[in-house]
């Protein structure tokens, strides 16, 4: 397979982006926006507390605002960003996938997964994806556009509100974890993703107040952006979608490898681990007869041990095949042997819990169907 052309920048131009929302603004920008509306500056803090603290995105329901200004504030700072097209659930209601439509008609997805000890939301950072990994439904659809900071944050606010209010199956709960593993390559929308992460982890009224250690940012391996992220002063988990240990195969499975080799990606991951003190997660989608050979398990363990030492964990992912795809998940015995060999090589390795196969939970499937 010929290498796919890739963008030369991490942050694509602002094309077709939605109107500015409160969640796009930092504290100084919020105050300036409120003053521009002819309101006293203290209203900026009130609005932020409503959105981030009370999870309220409808200005008409913000009762600490004078009724006479709610419509004006709503139009200026709380435009409707995402409207749910459908919710589909499975796993006894523990998994709910939402298809969203943005104001320009763009479709994107998020997945809420409830576990006995946590609730995790998988969010999108782009509509589509430009990385062109052939086994990924989103990658095959191409990139439509970047999501705005507020479009990213509002996926989280909405899920947190639904859990708090008990409108999802299983009753009331609390959102505890966020993973940037939905549609898109997060580090290709760098500025907005970092801004969104800061909104997600900052305490109210600056943000939603999740623990940094409960937020995971994934990447297929944009090595310079990994290093840049390491210097942001954040301690979120970095997940690198490696998917194979040899450059020859990875050039095909993850075309960005033609720009940054495995060695360069792992070197950047080591810099991230050393800078933040956080263990790096290596994502590895196990594909039948493609990357599941025992010798690849051995090579994976050898390279990770050398590059990252104890600061690494392999998250093995049984492939969620898409309709009509030539790719399929590896048989269970093959998966178990792969795990055994990685562990024997001195690297921590577990298999990710599979969720949502009957509701097209692989990223991009639901949007493609619609």
UniProtKB/TrEMBL annotation:
Entry GO MF terms: 4 iron, 4 sulfur cluster binding; metal ion binding; rRNA (adenine(2503)-C2-)-methyltransferase activity; rRNA binding; tRNA (adenine(37)-C2)-methyltransferase activity; tRNA binding
InterPro entries in alphabetical order: Aldolase_TIM (IPR013785), Methyltransferase_A (IPR040072), RlmN_N (IPR048641), RNA_MTrfase_RlmN (IPR027492), rRNA_lsu_MTrfase_RlmN/Cfr (IPR004383), rSAM (IPR007197), rSAM_sf (IPR058240)
Cellular localisation: Cytoplasm
GO CC, alphabetical: cytoplasm
Superkingdom of origin organism: Bacteria
Co-factor: note: Binds 1 [4Fe-4S] cluster. The cluster is coordinated with 3 cysteines and an exchangeable S-adenosyl-L-methionine.
UniProt binding sites for S-adenosyl-L-methionine: 184-185, 218, 241-243, 320
Binding locations of [4Fe-4S] cluster: 129, 133, 136
Alphabetical list of PROSITE patterns matching this protein: RADICAL_SAM (PS51918)
Keywords assigned: 4Fe-4S, Cytoplasm, Disulfide bond, Iron, Iron-sulfur, Metal-binding, Methyltransferase, rRNA processing, S-adenosyl-L-methionine, Transferase, tRNA processing
Chemical reaction(s) catalysed: adenosine(37) in tRNA + 2 reduced [2Fe-2S]-[ferredoxin] + 2 S-adenosyl-L-methionine = 2-methyladenosine(37) in tRNA + 5'-deoxyadenosine + L-methionine + 2 oxidized [2Fe-2S]-[ferredoxin] + S-adenosyl-L-homocysteine; adenosine(2503) in 23S rRNA + 2 reduced [2Fe-2S]-[ferredoxin] + 2 S-adenosyl-L-methionine = 2-methyladenosine(2503) in 23S rRNA + 5'-deoxyadenosine + L-methionine + 2 oxidized [2Fe-2S]-[ferredoxin] + S-adenosyl-L-homocysteine
One Pfam assignment: RlmN_N
Signal peptide stretch: none
UniProt-listed GO biological process terms: rRNA base methylation; tRNA methylation
Domain Radical SAM core: 115-358
Cofactors: [4Fe-4S] cluster
Family annotation (CDD domains): Radical_SAM
Active-site positions on this chain: 109, 363
EC number: 2.1.1.192
Protein family membership: Belongs to the radical SAM superfamily. RlmN family.
Extra information: Reaction proceeds by a ping-pong mechanism involving intermediate methylation of a conserved cysteine residue.
Role summary: Specifically methylates position 2 of adenine 2503 in 23S rRNA and position 2 of adenine 37 in tRNAs.
HAMAP family in alphabetical order: RNA_methyltr_RlmN
Protein name: Probable dual-specificity RNA methyltransferase RlmN
Organism: Rhodococcoides kroppenstedtii
Lineage, top ranks: Bacteria, Bacillati, Actinomycetota, Actinomycetes, Mycobacteriales
């Amino acid at each position: 397979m010929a290498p796919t052309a890739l963008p030369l920048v991490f942050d694509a131009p602002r094309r077709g982006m939605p109107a500015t929302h409160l969640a796009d603004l930092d504290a100084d920008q919020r105050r300036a926006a409120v003053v521009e509306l002819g309101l006293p500056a203290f209203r900026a803090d009130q609005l932020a507390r409503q959105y981030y603290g009370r999870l309220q995105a409808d200005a008409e329901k913000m009762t600490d605002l004078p009724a006479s200004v709610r419509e004006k504030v709503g139009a200026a700072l709380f435009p409707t960003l995402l409207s749910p097209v459908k919710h589909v659930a499975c796993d006894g209601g523990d998994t709910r996938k939402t298809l969203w439509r943005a104001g320009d008609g763009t479709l994107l997805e998020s997945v809420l997964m409830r576990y006995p000890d946590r609730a995790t939301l998988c969010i999108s950072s782009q509509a589509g994806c430009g990385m062109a990994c052939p086994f990924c439904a989103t990658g095959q659809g191409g990139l439509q556009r970047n999501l705005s900071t507020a479009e990213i944050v509002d996926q989280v606010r909405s899920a947190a509100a639904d859990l708090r209010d008990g409108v999802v199956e299983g009753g009331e709960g609390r959102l505890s974890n966020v993973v940037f593993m939905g549609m898109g390559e997060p580090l290709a929308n760098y500025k907005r993703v970092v801004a969104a992460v800061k909104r997600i982890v900052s305490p109210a009224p600056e943000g939603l107040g999740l623990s940094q250690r409960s937020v995971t940012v994934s990447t297929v391996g944009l090595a310079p952006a990994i290093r840049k992220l390491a210097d942001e002063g954040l301690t979120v988990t970095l997940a690198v979608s490696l998917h194979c240990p040899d450059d020859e195969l990875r050039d095909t499975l993850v075309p960005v490898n033609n720009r940054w080799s495995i060695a360069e990606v792992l070197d950047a991951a080591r810099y991230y681990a050393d800078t933040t003190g956080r263990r790096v997660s290596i994502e590895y989608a196990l594909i039948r007869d493609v990357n599941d050979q025992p010798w690849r398990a051995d090579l994976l363990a050898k390279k990770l041990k050398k590059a990252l030492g104890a600061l690494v964990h392999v998250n093995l992912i049984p492939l969620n095949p898409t309709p009509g795809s030539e790719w399929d998940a590896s048989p269970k015995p093959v998966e178990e042997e792969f795990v055994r060999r990685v562990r024997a090589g001195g690297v921590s390795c577990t298999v990710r819990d599979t969720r949502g196969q009957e509701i097209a939970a692989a990223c991009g499937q639901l949007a493609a169907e619609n």
